[in-house]
Design goal:
five-stranded parallel sheet; Argininosuccinate synthetase, chain A, domain 2; five-stranded antiparallel sheet; 13 helices; 394 residues; Rossmann fold; alpha/beta
């Protein structure tokens, strides 16, 4: 007896991936296995399992990856101070490589011949997923329904769902919805009123942050402790990577910190407008730069700043597993063992103020920088230093 082929679908339990699930069952003579990566998004495990079983799925995987996501993906990226086009902290971009890796692992475990995702044909995520799939499973087939099916509109999807008795949430029956992606690091919102750059962002779309106007009228203080370049404590208490980021998300979010409104250049050549909320990540970026300022030498810091735009672009474009990104990561992490200490921040109505930096590192010398006369810095050398650089002007 010939064994039935298997497809592992990246499944959220929502309308779109439920439609994809049914479509795969109808168009491929294969068993569909549902895979959900919990990277800190709002997730209803019972709903995911219920909806998948309702469509006849036997194998449903819901994998908790929160700590792995933060420790092995978010933290290395933060060490590189990766910011795309000046403001985007790459929240969606950094989650896709991990999901792709684990989806391929599931495909190999169950002997699946193919994997499938629900990314649309105009977005970046299809590239990110498929580069990850190729890296870990180059012989496994990729099925991208949005690029090949004939369901070309929202009304087509709704009709298909009704025909196949797939539950349609009330907010999905009318106009196209906002496209929302969330994980422990960030939330992104695109579509609808946001598509026209002249339109202001309506307050109701923000999910993680209050407006600065409605933030508390008093300061919030937080101290973040670092070891080997990674945050490990909040106010002296050691936390797991996932719990640490979640706590910072709450602290920053209620103080109106972490909002970005960006018109970005997608990898595939389209400009798009998105609104991002990265509250905890915004705190960590500020704190990490502050602790590096008193622990790293000038050449190391400037080299990191020099490579950052390329490093960020590689992540944005889905090249997390590439040799190019790994090569830059080695530069980023060259002296991370020196990045130890703590940074105290003041949070107030959308602002972050650095209050103090504490470290045992000797990279910063109070004696050398002091305006008081001292013997630790030879000022007579400065004239020779200036004269040397005068020659470079010619």
């Amino acid at each position: 007896m010939k064994l039935k082929k298997k497809i592992v679908l990246a499944y959220s339990g929502g309308l779109d991936t439920s439609i994809i699930l049914k479509w795969l069952q109808e168009n491929y003579d294969a068993e569909v296995i549902c895979y959900t990566a919990d990277v800190g998004q709002e997730i209803d495990r019972k709903k995911i399992i219920k909806n998948a079983k309702r469509l006849g799925v036997k194998n449903i995987i819901v994998e908790n990856l929160k700590d792995t996501f933060v420790k092995d993906y978010v933290f290395p990226m933060l060490r590189g101070h990766a910011i795309y086009e000046g403001v985007y902290l790459l929240g969606t971009s950094i989650a896709r490589p991990l999901i792709a890796k684990r989806q391929i692992a599931a495909a190999k475990k169950y002997g699946a011949h193919a994997v499938s995702h629900g990314s649309t044909g105009k977005g970046n995520d299809q590239v990110r997923f498929e580069l990850g799939y190729h890296y870990f499973g180059p012989k496994i087939k990729i099925i991208a329904p949005w690029r090949i099916w004939k369901l070309n509109s929202r009304s087509d999807l709704i009709k298909y769902a009704k025909k196949n008795d797939i539950p349609i949430p009330q907010d999905k029956k009318g106009a196209p919805p906002f496209s929302v992606d969330d994980n422990l690091f960030h939330t992104s919102t695109e579509g609808k009123v946001l598509e026209n750059p002249k339109n202001a962002v309506p307050e109701f779309i923000f999910q993680r942050t209050v407006s600065p106007e409605k933030a508390p009228n008093k300061n919030t203080f937080v101290t973040i402790g670092f070891k080997n370049g990674d945050p490990i404590t909040i106010n002296g208490k050691k936390l797991s990577p996932g719990n640490l980021l979640q706590k910072l998300n709450i602290l920053a979010g209620k103080n109106g910190i972490g909002r970005v409104d960006l018109v970005e250049n997608r990898f595939i050549g389209i400009k798009s407008r998105g609104v991002y909320e990265t509250p905890g990540g915004t705190l960590l970026m500020s704190a990490h730069r502050a602790i590096e300022s008193v622990t790293l030498d000038k050449e190391t810091m400037h080299k990191k700043d020099e490579i950052m735009p390329k490093y960020a672009e590689l992540i944005y474009n889905g090249y997390w597993y590439s040799k190019a990104r790994l090569k830059l990561q080695k530069i980023v992490d060259l002296k991370r063992n020196k990045v130890n200490g703590s940074v105290k921040l003041k949070l107030y109505k959308g602002n972050i103020v650095i209050i103090s930096r504490q470290t045992k590192s000797n990279a910063y010398s109070i004696q050398k920088v002091s305006f008081e006369e001292n013997k630790s810095f030879n000022k007579s050398n400065i004239e020779r230093f200036i004269n040397f650089h005068k020659k470079k002007l010619r």
